[in-house]
Design a protein that fits this description.
With about 575 residues, the chain is mainly α. It has helices spanning about 1-25, 35, 50-60, 65-70, 75-105, 110-115, 120-150, 165-190, 195-215, 220-235, 245-270, 290-295, 305-310, 325-345, 350-355, 360-375, 380-415, 425-430, 435-450, 455-480, 490-515, 520-550; strands spanning about 150-155, 160, 280-285, 285. The strands form 2 sheets. It has a two-stranded antiparallel ribbon. The N and C termini lie far apart (about 50 Å).
């Protein structure tokens, strides 16, 4: 599996990625939005490795680990096929197209692409869809992070005990945030060689891990929920150069080290595959179509990636030639991580992981990698703690990025190009205020967090994949209107429409059944409302986009730009 994945993904980058780049065209000499629109907050030029770190750390999250392990109930073959085929021909294409369209339109989001090439109503509905979706992502990932920080476990007999690994992960993660602020100052004011910056980042990384192992912090999951949301509030309104860029840059080294170590561990340990190749089209009441394709999202194709590619990363690209490694390359790296997660769960015999106390997906992943690396002489407990740290870093780095995108989507929804900053009505000024938009987004996400990520995950997966449909539609229309080849987006778009509409319909049916029989609590009621709204908004925007895609060419100019009010 590992050899096949490396060959397929590496070959895809060298062949298909460069084919797309040549087909669409780049101009290495053209000024990018990072310079043209530079504002020191969102538009900040950054080196390729820094933007790659931000992109990879933001898009990975907990998805490429949780998804394949959950979907393994269908067997390793369909999971592996979807990761490789989906990662190359669906996910990487979508991420590259989203970033490309954004950079060619002053670094604006997919929402503005939809307005420019589909219509203003489509943009408004898309922004509302994005805002609702971002709330789901923040809720799910915040619960995952709080779970990995939870310093206490309760046995079946009610005995409470401390979890040293989680305490160490919590300390190190908090130190990462403080170190990121310092690193950000060094990157901005030091003007050092990138290799010196890299050495400083790695030294900080090692120091944080060592201190975390020596001084674990033990707090409850509920306390960590509050701390995490306070952190998101600060991070989502701060300039990207102050925290977002350096934090993701710092964490990206930890994440890449984890992937390299895991690959080495797989080759050295050469674990047996204890998972059947295929277990059936229906397993425990779950159907392979569409469940497999919404469960494995981030490792194959994820609509959330389009928000990062067009919402934050595109505003940091220094040169158009950097788009391919940052977008296409980061997605293939994530597919490799998803394959590692599949190998991890496949290495355990039936009941073996549970017998070792490995219950959650991150625990199964960390336990398997720790087992692999004991073959090279590394202590199990140390590796288990470090892998848990990396998993929490994945989710934490996604949190402030997606919260920022959600905040921007909410603000943009109430902006009108015909109304400048001085002529806004009081209610418009309130809705477009970044602090109000952030607090409202996080309050709703906090309420959903209480449901737990396992309950939110199916809805998150469905909404995520529907977002990929909208991104693919928007990018296909952009490519058509600007006289570029976009046929490679049509099949992914049609397939994901079938997947997402089926999955959301099943989710609404399930939640509706609960409402009739047992009633719904606050969390599940919010889920039902979100599911219905996501489906309605997604259908309307997709239909509008497909109409534009299938209509005769209207002879628009090759590049169409729209004005944008400033988001303060």
């Amino acid at each position: 599996m590992m050899v096949i994945a490396i060959i397929v993904l590496g070959g895809a980058y060298l062949l298909y990625g460069r084919y797309l780049q040549n087909k669409w065209g780049i101009d290495p000499n053209k000024e990018t939005p990072a310079y043209e629109m530079q504002d020191g907050v969102d538009y900040v030029p950054a080196d390729t490795n820094v933007v790659f770190g931000h992109q990879f750390a933001s898009i990975a999250g907990a998805g490429p680990i949780n998804g394949p392990i959950q979907a393994a109930m269908f067997g390793w073959l369909p999971v592996l096929l979807w990761i490789l085929i989906g990662g190359v021909f669906f996910g990487a294409v979508q991420d590259f197209a989203s970033m490309y369209a954004s950079v060619k339109n002053k670094g604006r989001t997919i929402g503005y692409i939809i307005e420019a090439y589909i219509g203003k109503l489509g943009k408004k509905l898309f922004l509302l869809f994005c805002w609702l979706f971002c709330i789901l992502v923040v809720a799910a990932f915040a619960d995952v992070v709080a779970g990995t920080f939870n310093g206490f476990s309760v046995s079946e007999s009610g005995i409470v005990s401390k979890v040293a690994a989680n305490g160490s992960v919590a300390t190190t993660s908090m130190l990462f945030i403080l170190e990121a602020v310092v690193l950000g100052m060094i990157l901005r004011m030091g003007h050092l060689n990138k290799w010196v910056n890299t050495a400083i980042a790695i030294a900080m990384l090692i120091a944080a891990v060592a201190l975390g192992l020596a001084f674990p912090v033990y707090l409850s999951q509920g306390t960590w929920h509050i701390i995490i949301f306070v952190y998101i509030l600060v991070a989502c309104v701060a300039p990207v150069s102050a925290l977002l860029q350096p934090r993701d840059y710092l964490n990206s080294y930890l994440l890449i080290f984890m992937i390299v170590a895991a690959v080495i561990g797989v080759f050295v340990a050469n674990p047996s595959c204890n998972l059947r190749a295929f277990t059936g089209f229906c397993v425990d009441g779950q159907y392979l179509f569409p469940i497999l394709f919404v469960t494995i999202a981030c490792g194959a194709v994820s609509g959330f990636h389009s928000l990062v590619s067009s919402g934050t990363a595109s505003k940091q690209i220094k040169n158009e030639k950097n788009m391919l490694p940052v977008s296409f390359g980061a997605m293939l790296m994530e597919s490799l991580l998803a394959v590692i997660a599949l190998i991890a769960v496949a290495s355990f015999a039936d009941g073996e992981a549970a017998a070792q106390g490995l219950v959650t997906q991150p625990q199964i992943f960390a336990g398997a990698i720790a087992n692999f690396l004991t073959a090279v002489g590394l202590p199990y407990n140390l590796v288990f703690t470090l892998i848990n740290l990396a998993v929490s870093a994945f989710a934490l780095t996604s949190l402030d990025s997606v919260a920022r995108v959600g905040r921007l989507s909410f603000q943009e929804f109430f902006l009108d190009d015909d109304v400048n900053d001085q002529n806004r009505k009081p209610w418009q000024s309130l809705m477009t205020n970044k602090y109000f938009a952030t607090v409202l987004t996080l309050v709703l996400a906090y309420l959903l967090t209480k449901v737990g990520y396992k309950e939110i995950w199916p809805l998150f997966g469905s909404g995520n994949q529907l977002l990929s449909v909208l991104a693919l539609v928007a990018c296909a229309v952009f490519l058509k209107k600007t006289k570029r080849q976009g046929a490679m987006l049509w099949i992914p778009m049609a397939f994901m429409i079938a997947v997402t509409f089926t999955a959301l319909g099943m989710t609404i049916y399930h939640l509706g059944g609960q409402l009739v029989t047992t009633g719904l609590d606050l969390g599940n009621t919010l889920q039902l409302i979100f599911a219905v709204l996501l489906l309605l908004l997604g259908v309307i925007v997709a239909v509008q986009g497909i109409r534009k895609l299938t209509e005769k060419d209207d002879g628009q100019p090759a590049e169409k730009q729209t004005g944008a009010a400033h988001l303060s």
